[in-house]
Design brief:
The protein is mostly helical. It has eight helices and no strands.
Length: 201
């Protein structure tokens, strides 16, 4: 089964809309503070697992995430898809660098929520969300498109990894939930466009 042809556009428009709202507000969007406080109340402000998960999207570990997801994609679909995952990952990193030249949206601040590692860099986009969205997120969508038992199991595993990663960054006060969601949607949109350009749809 093919993914809906409109999905990349829907994700892109949604990401741009949420990102624009975040940039305009220059602070948390409605619900961001409450969701972050709830996550921190449940997990704690700086759980060890969250730091380990965060590290997986930094150099050199993120290259392992890319290669693992590329291999899984090749097994789920074909070798071209695996290569597409790697290209989409590179495009997501390029988008991260480019957007940071023009955007600055504040990260969570200690007067609103607990912040494990204060940073003055822009909270939008989230490098973590771009890395995971372009790799784990794309594999999740490809698995969903299979509509068989293996695909459903893989989709659940990938969704759990993606949610755990986003929860880790929010729990540590690294990004607002809206910043994570916008970045994930942008990465998945870019990844799907790469696969479509390569005629793997």
């Amino acid at each position: 089964m093919m993914l809906p042809r409109t999905l990349p556009l829907v994700l892109l428009v949604s990401a741009l809309a949420m990102g624009a709202a975040s940039w305009w507000a220059q602070g948390p969007l409605p619900g961001d503070v409450a969701l972050t406080q709830a996550a921190q109340a449940f997990f704690g402000a700086r759980p060890a697992w969250a730091e380990h998960v965060t590290t997986s999207a930094t150099d050199p570990w993120m290259w392992g995430v890319m290669l693992a997801c590329g291999l899984v994609a090749a097994l789920v679909r074909n070798g071209a898809t695996g290569v597409g995952i790697m290209i989409g990952f590179a495009v997501a990193l390029a988008a991260d660098r480019l957007l940071r030249l023009f955007l600055h949206v504040p990260r969570p601040t200690a007067d609103l929520v607990a912040v494990a590692k204060p940073s003055q860099s822009s909270g939008l986009p989230s490098t973590f969300a771009l890395v995971y969205g372009a790799t784990v997120g794309i594999v999740m969508l490809l698995a969903l498109a299979r509509r068989d038992g293996t695909g459903r199991i893989l989709a659940v595993v990938m969704a759990a990894l993606l949610l755990a990663g986003c929860a880790a960054r929010v729990t540590m006060g690294g990004h607002w939930p809206s910043q994570m969601v916008a970045s994930v949607m942008l990465a998945m949109s870019l990844g799907l466009y790469v696969l479509r350009y390569g005629r793997d749809d």
